[in-house]
């Protein structure tokens, strides 16, 4: 077990802590399969919402919050039955809009893992307005259930009534619906091609600027971020922040970054070149490699 979870385990019921402990390996980044959840449920006697709430201290341990020292953990429940943890992230030395919120982290985790629909989000503090807006972009926003400690489960529409969302801008689809932008890029570099695949799966219905980031370590670990746009624009989650957050969730030091690659569409109305370089520059000396994909 990775020792970063020691404190969290003391906050769990003993039977749950004993069962989950061997699952918290050095590679653990917050994903538990439906099978693992069944084992946790069988051994702890907790199920459903009780189990998710009990696991929140594990999710909050994935936080990287050097500015606030306020550790938020969230758990996204996929339609598949798997769960995906996320946590807040802050970058010292840059403006606060580079921050990633726990709900954004959990949702992006599920999206990158291939989930196509979320049925609920459990979080240890009440979702902020930014996250309520971010969650409204989800394709299942009308049915998404929010769970908090000491509160009855409520749909997202309870937390954000009269919401402004994708439908107000004429969009039928939402975040987590599949995308293929069918962009191409002339490169034999496998990491560049990986970034292209992720950019093709990104969600940019308003700016029409598909984009993705690949961060690679010298030992060959790869972390990716896809652009996740939002109808209200500002809550959009840029690809660099999503990729850095994927590293943070796994507890990998940013000094391990060896290459950083941005691929974005050549016909979009915006660009991530400057914001991605700024965010990267706070955590790494590595220069951002940038590519325009043909659409
Ligand atoms: Zn938030």
Percent of residues in helices: 25-40%
Secondary-structure element series: HHEHHHEEHEHEEHHEEHEHE
Strand proportion, as a percent range, falls in: 15-25%
Multimeric status of the protein: single chain
CATH topology of the largest domain: Cytidine Deaminase, domain 2
Number of E-type strands: 10
Shape summary: globular
Describe what this molecule looks like in 3D:
A hairpin with a 4-residue loop joins strand 7 and strand 8. By secondary structure, the protein is α+β, with helices and mostly antiparallel strands. It folds into 2 domains: 3-16 and 24-169, Cytidine Deaminase, domain 2; 190-293, Cytidine Deaminase, domain 2. It has helices spanning 6-10, 14-20, 34-44, 48-54, 56-60, 102-112, 129-136, 156-159, 190-200, 239-250, 273-281, and strands at residues 31-32, 73-78, 83-87, 118-123, 145-147, 154-155, 211-217, 222-226, 257-265, 288-293. The relative contact order is 0.12. Helix content is 31%, strand content 17%. The structure holds zinc ion. Zinc ion (ZN) binds next to helix 7. Zinc ion binds next to helix 7. Residues 47-167, 186-295 form the CMP/dCMP-type deaminase domain. InterPro entries: APOBEC/CMP_deaminase_Zn-bd, CMP_dCMP_dom, Cyd/dCyd_deaminase_Zn-bd, Cyt/Deoxycyt_deaminase, Cyt_deam_dimer, Cytidine_deaminase-like, Cytidine_deaminase_bacteria. Belongs to the cytidine and deoxycytidylate deaminase family. It is an enzyme of class 3 (hydrolase).
